[in-house]
Design goal:
Blueprint: H1 14-30, H2 41-60, H3 65-76
Helix pairs in contact: 1-2, 2-3
Length: 78
């Protein structure tokens, strides 16, 4: 592993990057939902999608491996 390949932040994690791409795609998709879903499915989908990278980032900042793994499990929906 070279110096350039080292993980310095959760932003360097591919899983976080993919989670952010998913969240962005969900936000763009839900913009096309009908107005009567403004307080129904739209915010629920957005919250679910954004929780994935948020939990990965929060777990990355934890002090112990156990806590980190727990946040990764939460991001998986466990």
């Amino acid at each position: 592993m070279t110096e350039a390949d080292k993980i310095r932040s959760y932003r360097d994690l591919r899983v976080w990057q993919e989670g952010m791409a998913l969240a962005e795609a969900c936000c763009m998709l839900t913009r096309r939902f009908p107005n009567d879903e403004l307080f129904g499915m739209t915010p629920q989908i957005r919250r679910a999608a954004t929780s994935v990278p948020a939990n990965i980032a929060e777990g990355y900042g934890r002090d112990s491996t156990g806590e980190h793994v727990q946040f990764l499990r939460v991001s998986q929906g466990h």
